């Protein structure tokens, strides 16, 4: 099993680089896809789905539905070798957007549901 650095990068109290468990690593990868804006990475200008841009848009059901398609497409594009996306749910309440992602880890077959808030 490969050892992966935790995201965001940090050091433990012992001075070593903090490591992530395999489940945390997959969650970190999903987080990076969700919260990286296209154009933010120099060598991969189309990486990410730009969820942070929604902070400045009016909150509505139409926006939530459009965001659901963008998020699912980005996850399938960038993480299809690691996870199989089962569902993406977007809930918008006042100034908060919550993204729920259900997926199956391809290496273990484990079904996981995670929630990310913006």
Number of strands: 5
- Cα Rg: 15 Å
Q: How many helical elements?
A: 2
The parts where pLDDT drops under 50 for at least 5 residues are none
Which series of helices and strands comes N to C? EEHHEEE
The spatial strand order of the largest sheet comes to 3-4-5
Reported by name, the CATH topology is Nuclear Transport Factor 2, Chain: A
- Tell me, briefly, the overall form: globular
The N- and C-terminal alpha carbons lie at a distance of 32 Å
**Strand content of the residues, in percent?**
25-35%
**How many separate domains?**
1
* Main structural class: alpha+beta
Name the CATH architecture.
Roll
- Which percent range fits the helix content? 25-40%
pLDDT average, as an integer? 85
CATH top level label = Alpha Beta
For the sheet with most strands, the description reads:
3 strands, antiparallel
């Amino acid at each position: 099993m490969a050892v992966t650095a935790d995201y965001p990068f940090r050091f433990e109290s012992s001075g070593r680089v903090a490591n992530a468990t395999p489940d945390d690593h997959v969650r970190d990868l999903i987080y990076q896809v969700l919260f990286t804006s296209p154009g933010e990475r120099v060598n991969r200008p189309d990486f990410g789905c730009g969820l942070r841009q929604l902070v400045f848009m009016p909150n509505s059901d139409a926006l939530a539905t459009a965001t659901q398609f963008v998020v699912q497409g980005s996850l399938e594009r960038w993480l299809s070798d690691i996870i199989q996306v089962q569902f993406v749910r977007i809930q918008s309440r006042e100034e908060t957007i919550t993204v729920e992602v259900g997926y199956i880890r391809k290496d273990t077959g484990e079904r996981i549901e995670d929630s990310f808030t913006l």
